[in-house]
Target: VTT domain-containing protein
Amino acid sequence: MPDAAILTAWGLPGLFLVAMLAGSVVPIPSEALLAALIYGGAPPVLATSVATVGNVVGALSLYLLGKWVSRGGGGALGRWYARRRASEGPRMERVEARLRTWGAPALLMSWLPIVGDAFVIAGGVVGVRPLPFVVFVTAGKGLRYLFVALSTAASL
Model:
């Protein structure tokens, strides 16, 4: 991962990139960069919006992977997902069962570390429609970034 000073120098475009990668399977602490940018003077509402949109774009990549794999595609990515599903076994089955039971509102849990990615991928696998997917993932991830932004702003 690049040096934090470089990332803060990139400003909001850097935040978008980091949040997008964090929304996929790359473990990058986008919340720390959000806090650093707000501490450095970035407008909290704008920074929160940029981080949320970037993170949702990253989550869409996992959603599309889930849809692709559910249709029998995926190649190397499909094999990776099959291995991950096999290694996580019951947890992935529970996540998929929750999504089948609760539908798209279960995607509010997409903000959670590690398990959130499972919800996002499972959303594609079980066939959650794109619009509800985006709405609930945006709400879940946006609330997380809002909490970070408000905490940071309150500490200034």
Q: What stands out?
A: The chain has a mean pLDDT of 85. Residues 4-155 form one domain. The two ends are 27 Å apart (CA to CA). The chain has one domain: 4-155.
